Amino acid sequence: MGSDEFVAGFDYPMFVVTTADPGTGERAGCLVGFATQTSIDPFRFLVCLSRRNRTYRAATAAAVLAVHVLGQDEDQRELAALFGARTGDDVDKFARCSWRPGPEGVPLLSAARRHLVGRILERVDLGDHVGFLLDPIEVAGDRGAAPLTFRTLPDLQPGHQAG
């Protein structure tokens, strides 16, 4: 059995991660499937960004990331498609959705069900992805909404290949 067979049938929550490069003000965001809580006390959250991705490039200079939980209804799936199937190398994703600036200028998606803004404590090489360990500085939203998962995503062709 290979690794693909091991994870077959898993249904991970999907997130949109956004950031802003403090030097250039460049905003970036992408759909992320590799993320998890790593500690209870103190609370820590890990998000993994593909090295091929524009969001990763912006995050290398950033102090904070925002992690957005989307719901399963159609408008949320469209937001997931915007951040998962389009690349910021070609399209200004933030011109196509409603957002507001959060701590340290990080873009917060108005339509997201909830979000966590976290200060980046560590960047960890994890192969073709880099893990960003976050210490929450702001958490808000509706915790009652069922999150968008890998299985409930629309069929997407990624803006950048992940690996």
TrEMBL record:
Gene3D superfamilies, per database record: Electron Transport, Fmn-binding Protein, Chain A
GO molecular function: FMN binding; riboflavin reductase (NADPH) activity
Key words, A-Z: Oxidoreductase
Residue ranges of every copy of the Flavin reductase like domain listed in the record: 7-157
Short name of any one Pfam family annotated for the protein: Flavin_Reduct
InterPro entries: Flavin_Rdtase-like_dom (IPR002563), NADH-dep_flavin_reductase (IPR050268), Split_barrel_FMN-bd (IPR012349)
Name of this protein: Flavin reductase
